[in-house]
Design goal:
heterotetramer; A: 330 residues; alpha/beta; Rossmann fold; 7-stranded mixed beta sheet; B: 330 residues; 2 domains; 5-stranded mixed beta sheet; binds thiamine diphosphate; binds magnesium ion
Chain lengths: 330, 330, 330, 330
């Protein structure tokens, strides 16, 4: 129960954090496409939360909860999404792509690319004989991308320490997984890479964590990659305000709400004898934490253009002209 | 004339072409249920059914390849790549196959197809969703490259692109979809390969593309107040380039500035500038100026992204400076 | 026996044809990379030979025997490889990429691309309700390419009439299949697309043909794609004169020679009571045919540059300048 | 000084850098067993073992991604893409990740890596194996683009590229691998971003790249006999461009011609031409001439491919004509 309660707290934090972000998006304080995470917290906490600080996590265009679960501070993630200097990428990356090497966290907004990138991180770990592993998390939609195939094959033939987690939230934008993925379960693709078929109900956070630990352990022992299909459900639209009615029934969403991981964990805790009041106080703590966070975040400054483009100026000692905005000057 | 949005103009072009010719079909991610990201195919799935409006998995390489194969079989696919940033995944199909098959078959295979995508900044989406990559396609023999700048143009050009027997790369701008402009009720076509003089003037020729056309027109308005008269040319088709219209203008004005959102280095502005120098050398009072985006990834957020690319002010400033230099020196 | 004898004749023709090509390559009369086919004739005759004239075949960088088995004339294939006007692509394509739409034959030298292209041919067939199917043949090496995954998934979800044939000749250049493909048998990948696992010994040409017929039949009935792993062995180097010693033992090749399809067919025919003299006379006929072919081919003319580049000149009515070699002129 | 081939110079660069720094590794198709297609890594697998020399499956996207990931972990990968035509498959990894991560991480992630490939005609391989795509990379902020033209240059530049902390696209030419040139025994580096005046002269500046440098030098030899003195400049690094060296030369000669194998339209020749016009307008007696390959796919065979690209004769002819025009008019 103690562990579950901890998971519950972590999931609830992500739930509220996501809500806060959605509100900020509605107010146009988060500027770009923003992809809500409600209902998928079992994956972030179960899988991303299972990594050690030195392990690497490669995430997606829906990264904010993965990032927090990996250990990035709420401050650094939120202000990144708000484009502020205190963001983990100095506010230059935004809500879909930022890199936080200090937390071994990387994400990007091109679906599927991270499966190839992951092999490189893992290759370096293996060759340098580091006791670290790489987790690569991607969606059901990404599992139709060529890089899924190439990345898994490469990791498998080289026995690289990668845990590939397919976060199957049932949709890729408006595309229902069962219409666009040609096999019944995504894990059925494992056989093509000499791997076991593993599907877990990631709305059960304990089961998710068990599966994560097992996979991570396997990788650490040098047994090569693992592919896990983590089944969950995307309760919100693909983005805030997407034309949801075109692709799913509200009823389906209501059903899903009954199975979502936060609710399930709460019920289990209550059944296990934890007091409702105790859980409520967790809730309150989180609400307060996030309120303070928001207040602080709104005060943070934006990056300067000079700083932003400095990192593209290839610093070549002998280059006569290293940066060349042709006629636009600072 | 009715004023409609750029997105609606696209939708009308689809609708007319699909009704006219049942071999025309649209294929891409969420072009059906969702009606495309910026709603440019809303309602068409209901109207034309899944044979002509095909939602696909996230498989840019296969989608593009599918288009090439279908075109070789006599169909007229419009392959939508959601963001030009993802066209990076389909380059083999476009460059090694679509652009090559006509020649490789000794003229026997025609590929009547359109690769339709959108690029540029303006939606605060950071560097993986804001690129200008048009010059890649200008650079590939066997492709036609089109960049429309208004609702009127996008409709007329898209219809021509669909009817052309060669592969056309058709690049819209994400900042334009909700811009309105006059579009006649009657059917019309705009031939590929024809530039348009969007505003006549005597002092400076401004060649601008895509989103930058409206900026240039507004800058010209402002300069008019200072007594400077600008001619603004939109090439519309980047290749084959309507050199005649450009040359005629520069021979008249004796000054030329090329404005692109893309950075100058390696970009189409260099092509345009070279063409003008090659044909109008004796007429030019000053060298052609390239007024282009900075050589940088587009940083996140509304402020920095705008500061990396030309603005009405910067265009007016640069054109004014060019004229003053010429007067000072000439 | 009658059918086997016919297969034997066809395979023997390919064997000798390949030999002839190798000799011409050594004499530098075939100019580009040339990839020998010896030992794989069971695949060409068993699979490609099973198609109807109106069915489409998409082949690879090792296409010459596939092309002949599909129905392209020896003349058109040989002179294409020799860069003569009478070649199926007018001599513009060469030994690795040529298109013969009149024989519904297409090939190219980028490994893996044809799996995407095939979906387009098949989509057109399905939508136009043609009673035709598409066969896509590719190597064991290609099965590690992203397009394998994307092409199979797309074909499977849309139930497209494609027979995907993986011609497993044990090597991709110097890469032995077992080191680079992460599963034991390539057919094990079928499950990931909801397909059956089918592996055939394609050195038994009768078995190959049986499997081909079954698959083709299935596709014609609208049951969707089939994936077949056709196992064979590449007896020659990847190209003429490759550094074979670096990646395999000569002994391995000698063993393979005992199992190659022409030899096996001959033995079976003899066991079945066919006279050796009859088989020898087939051999002699083929030798004579090929001698005449070579003599004729050497007399054929080369294409002109004007004709070659004509097919790249985008014929736009209104384009002021349709072809633009900047300063190189004809 | 010893005369060695271009390929051997590459091999020496690899050997020295890999011995110096065990984090340097080469990854690509058949770079190990085969020692690369043109033997530029022969013997290195034996010497450095499979950690530093990694043979891969045919998975260009994953290989490039693997390089990016490994570089982010502090290794120094050299990713070999066998033909530049296949770099089309790895563009996402190069453009959306390698070029972007330094900025996207606010400068925290460095990517010390080289994408090494080869392009161009000269081996009669037809249009899918003969392309010049260098300007794509010049066009992408965040990348360095290098094109060496001699054994001396390739060795010195490759060593610098390996040591640079930015992603470098390093493009060799397939026609050069067996060309010989003097290379000193002692170690040396050639800084990126430095052009070289390959021949001094007073009448015309010829800027030539890659294979075209030797053509231009020979053309200059011939023109010398007619009393015309050419200065030949090899930029070596296309971006960042050593403008100083070019400008100094054109200010002296007053005439400039840019020679590339790539066709002019959309190519790097436009960039070079624009830079010269922008900086030397007053000094130029005639507009910069672009003498470039035709806008066509490269047709098969030895005759036509040579006729599509500049030759010694055509360069001499064009440079001579430029001078005569200037004399006639100036
Ligand atoms: C290569 C690529 N194609 C298309 C997109 C547009 N896009 C963004 S998110 C998304 C859906 C991704 O679905 P999935 O992988 O299931 O992840 P989820 O959004 O469900 O978390 C798409 C198509 C993209 N970002 N990258
Ligand atoms: C995309 C791509 N990568 C690399 C190559 C270089 N190449 C040509 S043939 C070949 C091996 C192909 O192996 P396989 O698919 O098994 O076909 P096989 O040669 O055995 O017929 C390679 C790597 C290529 N042509 N295309
Ligand atoms: Mg999903
Ligand atoms: Mg093979």
């Amino acid at each position: 129960m103690r562990q579950l309660q901890q998971f519950y707290r972590e999931m609830l934090l992500l739930r509220y954090f996501d809500q806060l972000c959605r509100a900020l998006k509605m107010k146009d304080i988060i500027y770009s496409g923003y992809h809500p995470y409600e209902g998928q917290e079992g994956v972030a906490v179960g899988f991303c939360g299972a990594l050690k600080p030195e392990d690497v996590l490669l995430s997606t265009h829906r990264p904010h909860c993965h990032a927090v679960a990996k250990g990035c501070s709420l401050e650094s993630v939120l202000t990144e999404m708000m484009g502020r200097r205190t963001g983990c990428s100095g506010g230059l990356g935004g809500a879909m792509q930022f890199l936080a090497p200090e937390n071994q966290f990387y994400c990007g907004s091109v679906v599927g690319s991270n499966l190839g990138l992951a092999t490189g991180f893992a290759l370096a770990m293996k060759q340098k004989k580091l006791d670290r592993i790489c987790m690569c998390i991607f969606g059901d939609g990404a599992s139709n991308h060529g890089t899924f195939h190439e990345g898994l094959n490469l990791a498998a033939i080289w026995k690289l320490p990668v845990v590939f987690v397919c976060e199957n939230n049932q949709f890729a934008e408006a595309m229902p997984v069962q219409e666009f993925v040609a096999c019944e379960r995504i894990s059925m693709r494992a056989r093509g890479y000499g791997l076991e078929e593993i599907t877990v109900d990631a709305n059960d956070v304990e089961e998710a964590r068990r599966a994560a630990n097992e996979a991570i352990e396997r990788c650490r022992r040098g047994k090569g990659p693992v592919l896990i299909e983590a089944v969950t459900y995307r309760i919100q639209g693909h983005y805030v305000g997407d034309p949801e009615g075109t692709y799913r029934d509200r009823k389906e969403v209501e059903t899903a709400r009954n199975k979502e991981p936060v609710k399930r964990a709460r019920e289990k805790l209550l059944q296990g004898g934890v007091e409702a009041a105790e859980l409520d106080s967790i809730e309150q703590e989180i609400e307060e934490e996030l309120e303070a966070l928001q207040e602080w975040a709104l005060k943070q400054e934006f990056p300067t253009l000079e700083a932003a483009i400095d990192h593209v100026g290839i610093p070549l000692e002998n280059a006569p002209e290293v940066r060349g905005p042709q006629s636009l000057t600072l | 004339m009715a004023k409609i949005t750029f997105g609606e103009a696209i939708r009308q072009a689809y609708e007319e072409e699909m009704a006219r010719d049942r071999d025309v079909f649209l294929i891409g991610e969420d072009v059906g249920r969702w009606g495309s990201l910026y709603r440019s195919s809303t309602g068409l799935l209901e109207k034309f059914g899944p044979d002509q409006i095909k939602d696909t998995p996230i498989s840019e390489a296969a989608i593009a390849g599918c288009g090439v194969g279908a075109a070789a079989m006599g169909m007229r696919p419009i392959v939508e790549i959601m963001y030009i940033d993802f066209i990076t995944i389909a380059m083999d199909q476009i460059v090694n196959h679509a652009a090559k098959w006509r020649q490789l078959s000794n003229g026997k295979v025609k590929l009547p197809m359109v690769f339709k995508t959108q690029g540029g900044a303006g939606r605060r989406n950071s560097s993986q969703h804001s690129q200008c990559l048009e010059n890649w396609f200008v650079y590939v023999p066997g492709l036609i490259t089109v960049m429309p700048s208004s609702p009127y143009d996008v409709k007329g050009l898209l219809k021509s692109a669909v009817r052309d027997d060669n592969p056309v790369v058709f690049i819209e701008h994400k900042a334009l979809y909700f811009e309105k402009g006059e579009v006649p009720e009657e059917e019309y076509l705009i031939p590929l390969g024809q530039a348009e003089v969007k505003r006549t003037g005597d002092d400076v020729t401004i060649i601008a593309t895509s989103w930058m056309v409206s900026f240039a027109l507004e800058a010209a308005e402002r300069l008019q107040e200072e007594g400077i008269s600008c001619e603004v040319i939109d090439p519309r088709t980047l290749w084959p380039l309507d050199r005649k219209t450009i040359i005629r203008s520069v021979k008249k004005t004796g000054l030329c500035m090329v404005v692109t959102e893309a950075s100058a280095e390696g970009g189409w502005s260099g092509e345009a500038s070279s063409v003008v120098h090659e044909h109008c050398f004796a007429d030019l009072r000053r060298p052609v100026k390239r007024h282009c985006g900075m050589r940088t990834g587009i940083p996140y957020g509304p402020i920095l992204e705008r500061r990396c690319i030309p603005s009405v002010e910067s265009i007016a400033g640069a054109a004014g400076a060019l004229l003053r230099e010429a007067r000072g020196k000439g």
